[in-house]
Amino acid sequence: MLKESWSLVEEHQDKVAGYFYARMFLSHPDLRDLFPVHMDLQRTRLLNAIVTAVQTMEDPERFDDYLRALGRDHRKFHVVPEHYEVVGGALIEAMRAFAGEQWGVEYDQAWADAYAVIAARMLAGADADQNPPYWYGEVLTHERRSPDIAVFTVLPLQPLEYRAGQYLSIEATRYQPRLWRTYSPANAPRRDNTLEFHVRALGAGWVSSALVRKLRVGDMIKLAAPMGSMTLDRRSTRDAVFVAGGTGLAPVKSLLEELTRYNRTRWVHVFFGARTREDLYDLADLNRLAARYPWLSVVTACSDDPTFPGERGAIADVVARYGPWNEHDFFVSGSGGMVKATLKTLAELQVPSVRVKYDSFGD
Ligand SMILES: Cc1cc2nc3c(=O)[nH]c(=O)nc-3n(C[C@H](O)[C@H](O)[C@H](O)COP(=O)(O)OP(=O)(O)OC[C@H]3O[C@@H](n4cnc5c(N)ncnc54)[C@H](O)[C@@H]3O)c2cc1C
Ligand code: HEM
């Protein structure tokens, strides 16, 4: 019924989104302040997120951890329990308004029931969280490594616990308030609490271009809710392969730092790819690590640099030239296209999918 009823309005998604926000902001003007200033680009963001959640979570039990984390994370938007009813009501009204006569009361009920189950899990997650909704962090260093890439360090004002390989969300408070994007710390948790980030500015990307081109030492940013499961299993004795594209190197370096603290027995191979050699922005440090730890080897590749002295081609193809890989744990991170291509190659090489963890930076 959920899918059937959504298909009645799907074609007019943009108008449904417009109506949904108008309904919400007219009845509760205070809610407007929770959303970014410019909503044109991401008009359908929240609406799509809720519709996808409601439709894909036929078995909410399976998504319990995800929904709890999402609810916990929503605290950074200043969402409080009362907002859930307003949003759920506006969603159903917007769909009803555009579905016309084909809409039936049974659809109202189906959406209300599914939304209530999901909202309850998100609220339970938010309620159980002992952490603050977000942390303030001071920018300690900021270094441009290429026209589009910056490496910067941040000191959270309160301790922020996370695991190597996880990501957290950032608001560039001074430049793009209320816009949050996820970034992966490039270091394992340290005693001094500092976090290093590697960010590539994507064209006119709202948050990434502010972090690369505007952020200054001394600025305060907000950080929230560590999430993700691309973490090390300390019990695994298998050798490991890390495949990173561009700033996808950040979580890989975090995992490597953790390995340097205890690994004696596992061979670790890093494949680091980018379009041009200029984009291999952290090679000096990777080479330093490889020189220091005998279990670590690094292969670099450029896809669009015909005179590059290392490997040439897409990183997925480069990985396939080495191997065999069927006894290894894999960790893959980078742009959507790079991750997709690498997963396809690994499947062709018969690497069991349970041994592959990945974070895709794009759709
Ligand atoms: C789990 C996870 C971890 C991440 N970790 C990192 C990290 O450590 N470092 C890092 O640099 N990024 C990381 N990202 C990506 C980051 O979260 C943002 O998506 C990215 O910085 C773009 O945000 P933006 O606000 O600048 O762009 P938006 O304002 O969201 O998009 C602006 C424009 O850029 C276009 N665009 C979006 N993505 C791409 C793309 N890949 N290529 C070309 N154009 C694009 C959009 O279509 C849009 O027109 C991570 C993402 C995820 C999901
Ligand atoms: C079933 C309930 C809900 C679900 C499944 C849900 C899901 C999501 C998801 C997945 C995102 C991230 C979207 C992205 O980054 O692309 C998001 C963003 C957001 N959500 Fe929710 N949400 C719910 C309820 C609410 C409620 C009740 C509020 C309160 C107003 C709210 C406010 C926001 C805001 C402000 C954003 C950021 C939007 C933006 O950047 O444009 N959400 N939501």
From TrEMBL:
Keywords: 2Fe-2S, Heme, Iron, Iron-sulfur, Metal-binding, NAD, NADP, Oxygen transport, Transport. This is nitric oxide dioxygenase. Its cofactor is FAD; heme b. Its EC number is 1.14.12.17. Residues 132-233 form the FAD-binding FR-type domain. Residues 1-127 form the Globin domain. Belongs to the globin family. InterPro entries: Cbr1-like_FAD-bd_dom (IPR008333), FAD-bd_FR_type (IPR017927), Flavoprot_Pyr_Nucl_cyt_Rdtase (IPR001709), FNR_nucleotide-bd (IPR039261), Globin (IPR000971), Globin-like_sf (IPR009050), Globin/Proto (IPR012292), MRET (IPR050415). It is an enzyme of class 1 (oxidoreductase). GO terms for molecular function: 2 iron, 2 sulfur cluster binding; heme binding; nitric oxide dioxygenase NAD(P)H activity; oxygen binding; oxygen carrier activity. It catalyses: 2 nitric oxide + NADPH + 2 O2 = 2 nitrate + NADP(+) + H(+); 2 nitric oxide + NADH + 2 O2 = 2 nitrate + NAD(+) + H(+). Pfam families: FAD_binding_6 (PF00970), Globin (PF00042), NAD_binding_1 (PF00175). The keyword Transmembrane does not apply.
